[in-house]
Specification:
Elements: H1 3-15, E1 19-22, E2 26-29, H2 34-57, H3 61-80, H4 83-99, H5 104-119, H6 131-146, H7 150-174, H8 180-189
Antiparallel strand pairs: 1-2
Helix pairs in contact: 2-5, 2-6, 2-7, 2-8, 3-4, 3-6, 4-5, 6-7
Length: 190
Amino acid sequence: MSRSPVREGLLSLAEAGLIEFVPQRGFRAVRPSGQDVAEIFALRLALEPGAAATAARHATAALGEELREQLAAMRHAAKAGDDPGFAAADERLHTAILAAGGNTRLVSLIAGLRDTTRLIGASTAGRSRSLAQILAEHEPVVTAIEARDAEQAAAEMRAHLLTTGRLLIAQAHADGDAQAEQAWERLVSG
């Protein structure tokens, strides 16, 4: 492989704030901060509850089947202790909800935010809550979408994202990031 694709990849990671260029040394990984997590969840909270409401307004039987299929995959993975399988089904569920509104830019934007969260190693699975607990947060979102209850779908998605974000901020604080909770308060609770 030539240097160009590798360099382009490194520059993309630097653009995303995941690595930084060190003159005459190369690149190094950037340790994510609570500020990073708070910024990501502020964006997700601004967008995903509305997307869940839109999915509820446009819900079809096919969407309901897709969401139930992903919940079943999450349930199976949770029982098997399969964290990667659970995460993949969780991502497919969120993507199906986002895609239901037909806004491909929204799907792409949220996918990028979720990728960044995953790349920085931010996860509550197994550390702050079980896979079964995470699954339980998704079930009311799906139920509200199937019932075509836009207001409830938005509220349930917001509750899920707030829980996840707060747990990630608490983890960042416990890991020594004294500014994590202040960033959350300023950007999300503010």
